[in-house]
Amino acid sequence: xxxxxxxxxxxxTYSLTGDEGTxxxxxxxxxxYRHVDTARLYGNEAAxxxxxxxxxxxxxxxxxxxxxxxxxxxxxxxxxxxxxxxxSRERLGVETIDLLYHHWPRHRDEIDVVLPVLDDLHAxxxxxxxxxxxxxxxxxxxxREILDAPILANQVECHPLLPQDDLVAAMRERGVTxxxxxxxxxxxxxxxxxxxEIGEKHDATPAQVSLAWLLDRDGVAAIPRTSSPTxxxxxxxxxxxxxxxxxxxxxxxxxxxxxxxxxDWMTW
Length: 268
Fold this sequence. Notes:
Oligomer: single chain
Order of helices and strands: EHEHEHEHEHEHEHHEHH
Number of domains: 1
CATH class: Alpha Beta
Helix content: 40-55%
Strand content: 5-15%
Mean pLDDT: 95
Distance between the termini: 27 Å
């Protein structure tokens, strides 16, 4: 699903809130994005829902993803999770959530509480697809034992400075798409000489090169986030960049490593 156009390059919405968030997300949808990613934690599901309503695109043409549970929440119970998902659905203004992620478990045993609820919601038709976020390979294997529903995606930080080769390969073997958040490393890619030079070769920005590289990988999708409609359109144009094998080899030879999201409680 997420490896197909037009969903493979989605639009991330972290920190896009209020009326301005609605304006930016609506503009992104009208520019051509059909996969929109949000989360209960972001506090912007209502703004995203308003953008979906405002944009002149049929709902059935959009793929709407959100997330439930995260480290700021109390220890979740099944009742809490179900209620939180219902509130998310109301804020988004959708009958069905196309993809619902378990959002980065704070404790490993949280998986045992949250995923059975997601399974039930999938069986009830409230959720079309189930996903996980920031799961290790071991976590995904545990999740596969719990769930009857297939895992569509594992959303993790992934970019040329954190290629996640082992994780991507393991997810590919399990039929799980890796959805890359922070796919341009929150701007760090602009200072990478290899990406700058490849960009000059293709008349592209380092961000576009990074996105093109991610989209060139089997089993990987990406959700760049920007508050600029101009940059949003530039990111979409990354789909047209044709990297040659030499470009790919140079990108994969970058030895600088940056992990932007690395809380003390997470064990990678």
